[in-house]
Design goal:
The complex is a heterodimer.
Chain A lengths: L7 E2 L4 H10 L2 E4 L5 H6 L8 E4 L9 E4 L2 E5 L4 H6 L1 H6 L1 H8 L4 H6 L2 H7 L7 H6 L3 E8 L1 E8 H4 E3 L2 E2 L6 E8 L5 E8 L10 E10 L2 E10 L6 E2 L1 H7 L7 H15 L10 H23 L1
Parallel strand pairs in A: 1-3, 2-3
Antiparallel strand pairs in A: 4-5, 5-10, 6-7, 6-10, 8-9, 11-12, 12-13, 13-14
Helix pairs in contact in A: 10-11, 11-12
Chain B lengths: L2 H4 L17 H5 L15 E7 L5 E7 L1 H5 L3 E6 L21 E2 L5 E7 L2 H9 L2 E6 L6 H5 L16 E7 L2 H7 L2 E8 L3 E2 L7 E6 L5 E5 L4 H12 L6 E4 L16 H12 L3 E4 L2 H7 L2 E2 L2 E9 L5 E13 L9 H10 L5 E10 L13 H18 L4 H8 L18 H12 L1 H9 L4 E3 L14 E14 L11 E7 L5 E5 L8 H13 L6 E4 L17 H28 L6 E4 L2 E4 L5 E4 H10 L6 E7 L18 E13 L5 E11 L6 H21 L4 E2 L2 E2 L17 E7 L21 H13 L10 H10 L5
Parallel strand pairs in B: 1-13, 11-12, 16-17, 21-22, 28-31
Antiparallel strand pairs in B: 1-5, 2-4, 2-6, 3-5, 7-17, 8-15, 9-14, 10-11, 10-13, 15-16, 18-19, 19-27, 20-21, 20-26, 23-24, 24-25, 27-28, 29-30
The chains are: A alpha+beta, B alpha+beta.
Amino acid sequence: MSVLTPNYFVPKSLPEALKIAHRMKVTPLAGGTDLIARLNAGESVLGGAILSLRHLCELGKIEQREGEIEIGARTTITEILESSLLKSKVKVLCETAQCFAGEQIRNAATLGGNLCNASPAADMAIPLLLLDAQIELARWGEGVERRQIPLSQFFLGPRKVAKDEDEIVTRVIFSVPKDQQVIYFEKFGTRESMDISVVSVGFSANLNGDQLSDVRVALGAVAPTPIRQRSLEGLLENCKIKNLDEKLPFVREILGREVRPISDVRASAWYRGELLYKLLKRVFADVVRKRD
Amino acid sequence: MNQETLSPIKKESLIGKRIPKKDAPLKVAGEVKYINDLKLPGMLYGKILRSERVHALIKKIDTRRAEALPGVHVVLTGDRTPKVPFGHGRDNYPLKFDKVRCYWDEVAAVAAESEEIAEEALKLIEVEYEDLPGLFSPQDSLKDGAPIIHEKVSNNVPFVWDYSNGDVLEGERESDHIIEDTFKLHFVTHCCMGVSGVIADCNSQGDLTVYSQTQVPFLYKKDISPVVGIAPEKIRVIQPVLGGGFGSKLDIYPFEPIAILLSKAVQRPVKLLFSRKEEFISSPTRQPVELKLRSGVKKDGTLTFRECTTLHDNGGYTSWGATTPFVIMQTISSLYRVPHCKYQTKVVYTNNPYSGSFRGFGNLQATFAIETHMDKLAEIVDMDPLTFRLQNSQEPGETTPQGMVFRSCGMKESLLKAAQRSHFLEKHKLYREGKGISKIAPEGSQESSLAPSEVRRGIGMASMVHVGGGAKIYRTDGCGTILKLDDYGHVTLLTGSSEIGQGSETVLSQIVAEELGLEVSDVTVINNDSDVKPWDVGVHASRTTFIAGNSARRAALKAREKLLGAVSGSFKIPYEELDLRKGHIVNRRDGVPITSIGKFLRQMHFAEKNEIIMTTEYYEPPSVSQDREFKGDVSASYAFATQVAEISVDTETGVLRVDKVTSCHDVGRVINELLIEGQVEGGVVMGCGYALSENLMVREGVVKNPSFRDYKLFTATEIPEIEMEFIETSDPEGPYGAKGIGEAPAIPTAAAIANALYNATGVRFYELPLTPENVLKGLEDSKWKS
């Protein structure tokens, strides 16, 4: 930590927090699992005063309102993992939370923090992209002003998000999945637990009899941000389940052409490409099995 | 004397019992004080400015702005400190003055009121460099015209070692088959839970008290003395509780003399503690080796010769890593009976990180190569891996061509037990025939291209030999003990040896208690102050139970003799009729107590002759130094082991899971079953990490993954089932027959796993680690299915 300890604000309500962010440049702090680690690593990540969001209880709820589920930005990954509402309505979020880092990190890390950190490997982003989630941001103007944007437009690049400096992420909102919708999240780390994704793959589709519709594919750790892969979605839309295996060469081709992962300490581009294809293949095999 | 003590006391031995570690409760409760917790009055905080260059001339260092920062007490550079080299190769300096040779080399140091101020001060130091071309592999360093890293070594080769016995040409002529392969072993590092740190406290009288994590306090005094300009007799080494050693604290590394020099400059205590990142980048590694191995065999399965050349990446400076060939050659010459043997090695300077000593000391690397070859040769002569090894196995009484004498040897038993417990032969045959295959998805359509991927099972074995009775690297391999009995029947054991987490305090207490008829809790161990404890070589070479144990035992026997002698005189009972049991002096035959030890000692103190019981011992093992040809019986005993690894490998992703490791060890004699199990478990896990997940990624000299996020230690989820058996060969020299176990369990694991991977897939791997990516790449490259 620097000698110059910055100002530290601990607002008790959202309006109070927004007013501070409106007045001065702040760095929001939620779980701190990214921010503090980067600070300790000597990175200059503090753009002004630290604004703790920890006491904003209103951002810590998981609720269903009619056909929509709202998750507060300050909800921890453990709270997602243990939510009975999510378990019954959107199990994939619990499954994703289950393979998110280790237990201590899950207890501290928040959904909003995971999304705002905008790591290409952000685990929670993948199922939320599949759910076509909206992200709600608030700022202080004439009182609390809120806006929503699709999560897919929120990520701009590594650690860059479409959020103004005076805005705070408040909620993530998405429609409750339909009964016939299947959603998969497959994470691959080089170790069985306590690991960061080498790649992650999300797949969602409605199973109407023998046919797939509303196909969505999301990929993590293979581009500057978590992404939706629209070409694959197009390829698989209205595909007959029994024909899924015939699509594999095309899947491989699209992945090879359009997805260009980097090589880094976690894996080579080649291996990431192999994994993407094989994880998708496993998802397809499971879809086939489900139909049978 | 009360009624209870009058009833007879049966003779009960503590040897072989499951006795928990003495220090465990305090560690679990968080009450132990590590170097991190220590704070002396008036203490300052030291920080080191490290160079971002890998090879560069230092042109100019300007420290004026740092010195002017309030709270800064001193700023040191290489030019302001004595230029006395240190380290195993005497080629390293606390602060570099002419040039830097490694990433994060030390160029300046600060002592300040707080860590934060010290860090700020570092930012104010300006260094001008002139970059030099870097060398990042031994091959590059050996090229004609390669830049010179140390001016005194114009060919970049500080050490060359050649060993041979017999005549390899003769061996070749006798061979029906000869194989040759190149093995490449990678960088890994110790990952001690406690980071490196030191507190140096120099006073105005020139005395130094250093709170050091060293594993070798007495050698440390001698080695560090000229570097910091303080006479050894003015240096007192206090060893705080260590958060992990594994060999990493066997040499002097720059941060320690830096802290001492800072303290000397300001005559105040200075604490210097690494960050985790510094620990990853600036503490020693296991030495990477490229190993070319040729092996020959006769049709009947008899080994004929081995020829091995190794290239060691020494990094920018020489620490203990450079001497790992001593152990490598033991495995090459003596793990099996091989009549003809030749080993040549070059240790080569590069601008990579430099290596130190690390549990196993070269033997993980050597065993990986040798045991892969044993598997290959077995297949060539159409024998199973077990029978082939048994045929070439060492036996008790063997003197190897390198001069090692196996007075006790449980190698055959370890092979047989490990195979029997793991059903090795049946499984090896089944899996080889492809009968260990299962599918990942339970009911996928087999015909479709969506067919589930194959998970193949495999089983592999590997054996090892390692010193088990110390190693005579210095003119003495001894350890001193002082034993003091007090008038409450309590014993203070002052041992030269150090506790580094291996459990020596517990084992030594057990030995003393055994001889004096006491409980383990009746013994206090003092082992962390060089002004108090007697001399010892240090904690290394799996020597502590053997050497310090023998020393403690002999001191205890002397005390016993003295005590019983006095009792005999006082009670007029013949010496031979006396025994010590449960804190009492008893009649040997019926166990009836005569008096309590405490009471008798009190009587001795107050008796006319006023005597105390205090004994000393210096145990020197009957080993010898190697001669100029590297031959000689360097250890008083040798340990053997065989491990069998059972694995599953997902052939589509390359994920290799170790399902089970069966580890059978010739331990001579079990002294503390619980602790020995702990050593085996820890070793197997470390061996698994070396084999599968750990990899310090060094690219052009720079460590690319200096964090636990990207340096993958094995975690609880991946740890396999570990089954073990201890073979008691009762070594004639070991305490109660015991031999060392500290390093052994980590040594054969990687080799056993690689052999299991071959059994599963038919593909040989010659490089580690076997990460999912490397496994998949290896399988794809070999077009393994065809």
